[in-house]
Amino acid sequence: MKDYLSAIDDVCKESYVDKDRLGCVGASYGGFSVYWLAGHHQKRFKAFIAHDGMFNFEQQYLETEEMWFVNWDLGGAYWEKNNAIAQRSYQNSPHKFVDKWDTPILVIHGEKDYRILASQGMAAFNAAKLRGVPAELLIFPDENHWVLKPQNGILWQRTFFKWLDKWLKTPNAQ
Questions:
Q1: Residue 37, SS3 per DSSP
Q2: Which residues contact 114 (CB under 8 A, 6 or more apart)?
Q3: Fewer CB within 10 Å, N or C, the chain?
Q4: What is the maximum span of the chain, computed from C-alpha positions, in angstroms?
Q5: Is 28 considered catalytic here?
Q6: Is residue 113 flagged as an active site residue?
Q7: Which one from 28, 40, 73, 119 is the annotated catalytic residue?
Q8: What would the DSSP string read from start to end of 67-124?
Q9: How far apart are CA 132 and CA 103, in angstroms?
């Protein structure tokens, strides 16, 4: 995450970058990254988009259909108090930093994603709304971790770019 922030700070030094209109988007691990950065970006970004990301690691550990991934990615179960790797993972779960969320976020998820359930997206969306952060939720009942159906792809693209336009374009450009 420090690399992400260092990279965006470095890119902002370029003359062609408007540091006052930066967006942060990501899917899967990138979706998790968006949720985590939403609580740590220190006003760098003006809009977020998260697609199929893990938001609450404890919730994720118990609801995924593939335990190998969460054991590998998170280092083990959250109740393993003597497991330093797992404990460090759970201490950095994005849901623990929602108190710092202040930037509009679009959450996208497929209900047939059994690796990272749509409840992760719903939880992130609800957290944003409860914090008073502008948020939208786009759920695809018939998609998994990827959006594969052509009509859904069109909706995904339209929603994605509409969100970025809404929060990142200058009023005169709209």
A1: helix
A2: 64, 65, 66, 144
A3: C
A4: 56
A5: yes
A6: yes
A7: 28
A8: HHHHHHHH-S-TT-TT-HHHHHHHHT-GGGGGGG--S-EEEEEETT-SSS-HHHHHHH
A9: 10
119 is catalytic: no
Mean pLDDT of the chain: 96
CA distance 163 to 148: 21
- CA 4/CA 26 separation, integer angstroms: 12
Look at residue 172 in the predicted model and tell me its pLDDT.
56
- pLDDT, one tens digit per residue, over 114-132 is 999 999 999 999 999 999 9
* CB within 8 Å of 31: residues ≥ 6 apart: 50, 51, 52, 53, 54, 116
Annotated catalytic residue within 33, 93, 113, 165: 113
